[in-house]
Write a structure and sequence with these properties.
Layout: H1 2-6, H2 27-39, H3 45-52
């Protein structure tokens, strides 16, 4: 992230992600992620994404 600002990036907003599917943002997935985090707050994003079955990048 730092490198992106070092290379003259000024915007702090996330880049759009064309591969992001709206199907990953379902109420069911949101509930699953919330439950995982409440059960183990030390889970990595990768572990959560793999468990829920969503892309960790977007």
């Amino acid at each position: 992230m730092f490198k992106r600002f070092q290379d003259d990036r000024e915007d702090v907003e996330d880049d759009s992600c064309p591969s992001s599917l709206s199907t990953s943002k379902t109420d069911e997935n949101i509930e699953k992620v919330g439950n995982l985090i409440r059960s183990d707050c030390w889970l990595t994003i990768r572990a959560i994404a793999e468990t829920v079955g969503i892309d960790k990048e977007c």
